[in-house]
Amino acid sequence: MTDSMKNGNSLSFLSHDINELEHSNQANLPRVTVVMPLKGFGEHNLHNWRSQITSLYGGPVEFLFVVESTEDPAYHAVSQLILEFEDYVDAKIIEAGLSTTCSQKIHNQLVGVEKMHKRSKYVLFLDDDVRVHPGSIGALTREMEKKPEIFIQTGYPLDLPSGSLGSYCIYEYHMPCSMGFATGGKTFFLWGGCMMAIIAQMHADDFRQDRYGLVSGLKNGGYSDDMTLAAVAGAHKRLISSPPVAVFPHPLASDLNFGRYWNYLRKQTFVLESYITNVNWLMNRALFAFHSWASWGFVTPYFMALIHVVAALRFYNKPYSFEETPYTFGGLVLVTILAICTLVELVSMWNLTRIEVQLCNMLSPEAPQLSLASYNWCLVFVAMLVDNFLYPISAVRSHFSQCINWSGIRYYLKDGKISKIERTQRSKDMDPVFTDLGGKHLCAKKVLPTRSSFLGSLLRSLAQWHQPKKFDN
């Protein structure tokens, strides 16, 4: 991107090749349907939704916001946003109803796929906590067009901690996802926040004929969309790809407390209890064992180092000479090595985050620039210890409980699939329920978006310039 800008391409954040932005090329771009399952409304959602619908993708694109019902606080906020951009984007709200055989998120996604345009070639699933770049849809589509062997594309989050220990634990937990970029774009796991797949035209049978058991695996007891699709791709030797520009800012709630972090960790470990095949079950058990071993293997040296340091302090505080009391310094040598390794690890995390922040700033030149100045690296170290210590505990609890509360809905698993769903009715006088990371109100008064800023007006103008207003059905 930097080289392209030096050569005079000021729109390198959209495409490295300026010729690809010519009208003749843009007119031949395939149709894309963006499906966004929604649940609740929080402090960052409106900004995230704006970034999603103001994409500078030059081809036909439609945006489908899918809610459980009109009672969801997200419905009223999205309605106002669509009204604001109705002359510039093709967007609509779909009421999916209650799920009965799978998670509500998967149910919303499948309803969105059923309602998509009949000529859409690609579908892009985006979570409401994803903040995409102006050229993200174009970059993902361009990669799919160049490599037809790709089954699913995915991206990864760049967490923006809010300052609490819980938010730094989330940041530390998501950091290993970035390893997907070290494999030349090929990976074996997905992030459900951003997934693009081929679903129409010559590949329409993938969904309509339930090829590979894709739809049935999701609909009949599916709990996790990304784990299910990753299992299907792995079972049928299909390629999962991660382009190098698929890094998306993921702002965390300013009031993300430790309790909400713990519930999120429980959801992540509970995913390992869901499966669709015996091979998938074995893979999850292996991941369960390895992650638990690696987590406590990471924490144990610090516990031992603390014992060595305390023993050394007690020795120096005793009124004995070195000749009277034998003492070995081997423990302190190991403590020093551990301290050096810790410093190397923190510097590596800092450098990786710095590169991702720089990349996000280049991909979204119109947005407020991200900065490393807000990161507290002492809290990052504490979060590494806390998160790795709690992971095995959460995993064991998920294994024996076989149930989880996800956004106010309790799911029960049996043989790796959802067997029971419980929803509790809440009165209007009760305190609102919040989701884990976004701090979203799930049961609250209607929340209307604020007035658009100058930046929003600029993006709206760019969207009008780069894509048609409406597309025929």
Automatic annotation (TrEMBL):
GO terms for biological process: glucosylceramide biosynthetic process. It is an enzyme of class 2 (transferase). Pathway: Lipid metabolism; sphingolipid metabolism; Sphingolipid metabolism. GO terms for cellular component: membrane. GO terms for molecular function: ceramide glucosyltransferase activity. Keywords: Glycosyltransferase, Membrane, Transferase, Transmembrane, Transmembrane helix. The chain crosses the membrane at residues 293-316, 328-352. Belongs to the glycosyltransferase 2 family. This is ceramide glucosyltransferase.
